[in-house]
Design a protein that fits this description.
12% strand, alpha+beta, elongated, two-stranded antiparallel sheet, single chain
């Protein structure tokens, strides 16, 4: 009898607790947002951050709340765009993007401050702000290549280079690069400037043999008002650029590319 009473007491407590949990799950739980769930299921689950959000869950929530466009998922491509079009009832066009290294300063053209001999990592080299004189250029130790699942990035002559045929546009390299040298650019872009230095031209010349010096030749040559120099750096307005290549032809530093 002395054993039965404690057993009954514990069983009773268990029943009461179970009933309480059941009621709490029924009346206190958040209702499932079916549309958000469908959007999330349509996304590939790469959680790459290429869309500008921390992961697919956050991106799905942003689409559901109307805070983000639905065509930003590069890894999902056309399949995801088609699925989202059906779910949302609107035409979703996949924005094909590829990684692009906005630097041309390889080991032959970019000048160094010192010979780096630490960990073979761009992030580690940034402890000393990098070995390159240019504060905006590629360090070239391959952190981007290490995170690329497709093997689309190689470091040649101290400069990261992207094989656009292999690149899936996931954006992992973009978030990994400590210098912000790699950008995800739409395939629709005609020309891009392979430099991001905002130093004065006289300073750039001392740092790199191929950096933008803000000479304005490209601006004067462009008949479409598509390129301007801002903060000593040439910037292309893609909405006006026709891809005529006149700016590339007159650039004395050879930094404007297809």
């Amino acid at each position: 009898m002395s054993i039965v009473l404690p057993i009954l007491l514990v069983a009773g407590i268990g029943l009461v607790a179970g009933f309480g949990l059941a009621m709490a799950s029924k009346y206190l739980s958040e209702p499932v947002d079916e549309l958000k769930e469908k959007i999330r299921e349509a996304l590939p689950g790469a959680n790459c951050g290429g869309c500008g959000f921390a992961g697919c869950d956050e991106y799905a929530a942003a689409i559901r709340e109307g805070k983000a466009e639905a065509g930003l998922c590069a890894p999902g491509g056309k399949n995801t765009a088609v699925a989202l079009s059906e779910i949302l009832g609107v035409d979703v066009s996949a924005q094909e993007k590829r990684a692009y290294v906005t630097c041309n300063g390889d080991c032959y053209r970019a000048k160094t401050k010192f010979a780096y001999s630490g960990l073979n990592s761009c992030a580690a080299a940034m402890y000393y702000r990098g070995p390159m004189k240019c504060e905006f250029g590629c360090i070239g130790l391959g952190d981007c290549a290490a995170v690329c699942d497709r093997g689309a990035i190689r470091v040649n002559d101290g400069l990261a280079r992207v094989d656009r045929e292999l690149c899936g546009g996931c954006g992992k390299c973009v978030t990994t690069c400590p210098k912000g040298v790699i950008k995800l650019l739409p395939e629709s872009y005609h020309n891009v400037v392979a430099c991001q230095s905002t130093e004065k031209g006289s300073t750039v010349i001392k740092q790199c043999d191929i950096g933008c010096i803000g000479c304005m030749k490209c601006v004067k040559e462009c008949k479409h008002d598509a390129i301007h120099v801002e903060n000593f750096l040439a910037v292309i307005d893609q909405s006006k650029c026709t891809g005529c290549d006149e700016c590339a032809l007159v650039c004395p530093r050879g930094i404007i590319h297809k």
